[in-house]
Amino acid sequence: MLPKINRLTKQRDLGRVKKVGRLAFFNPYRVRFLANRQSASRFTVVASTKVSKKASQRNRLKRQVREILRLNLPKIKGGYDLIIFLTPMALNFTYQQLECQLLELLVQLQLLKND
């Protein structure tokens, strides 16, 4: 589970990111992101019923993406709010593919630290 400091939960913050944030696509993800004034980046993962009608499949995908984020938190720059939307294509990806694609997306958005 993501640490509490890294969770984006308030409707006010989610609305701000959806309204003002920049949009990026990289299958199987669609990401809205916006800089915040905090030291830590915050995330929320969304899998709508368009991804799958089965809640168990949607929840599994969300758990996998959150775990990928948790394991890679030290590599991710602080100060950003991200809403990560999953597309139906995500069901066809393995955990390793999901991780590779998410890290590639973060590289393209320049959200990974240069260590």
From TrEMBL:
Q: What class of enzyme is it?
A: hydrolase
Cite the entry's keywords alphabetically: Endonuclease, Hydrolase, Nuclease, RNA-binding, tRNA processing
Q: Which GO terms describe its biological process?
A: tRNA 5'-leader removal
A GO cellular component annotated for this chain's UniProt record is: ribonuclease P complex
Give yes or no: UniProt keyword rRNA-binding: no
Does this UniProt record's set of keywords contain Transferase?
A: no
Per its UniProt record, what PROSITE patterns does this chain match? RIBONUCLEASE_P
EC code: 3.1.26.5
Residue ranges crossing the lipid bilayer per the database entry: none
Query: GO MF annotations for this entry?
Result: 3'-tRNA processing endoribonuclease activity; ribonuclease P activity; tRNA binding
What InterPro entries would the database entry show? Ribosomal_Su5_D2-typ_SF (IPR020568), Ribsml_uS5_D2-typ_fold_subgr (IPR014721), RNase_P (IPR000100), RNase_P_CS (IPR020539)
Q: Quote the catalytic activity from the record.
A: Endonucleolytic cleavage of RNA, removing 5'-extranucleotides from tRNA precursor
| Function statement | RNaseP catalyzes the removal of the 5'-leader sequence from pre-tRNA to produce the mature 5'-terminus. It can also cleave other RNA substrates such as 4.5S RNA. The protein component plays an auxiliary but essential role in vivo by binding to the 5'-leader sequence and broadening the substrate specificity of the ribozyme.
What quaternary arrangement does the UniProt entry report?
Answer: Consists of a catalytic RNA component (M1 or rnpB) and a protein subunit.
Q: Which family does it belong to?
A: Belongs to the RnpA family.
Q: What is this protein called?
A: Ribonuclease P protein component
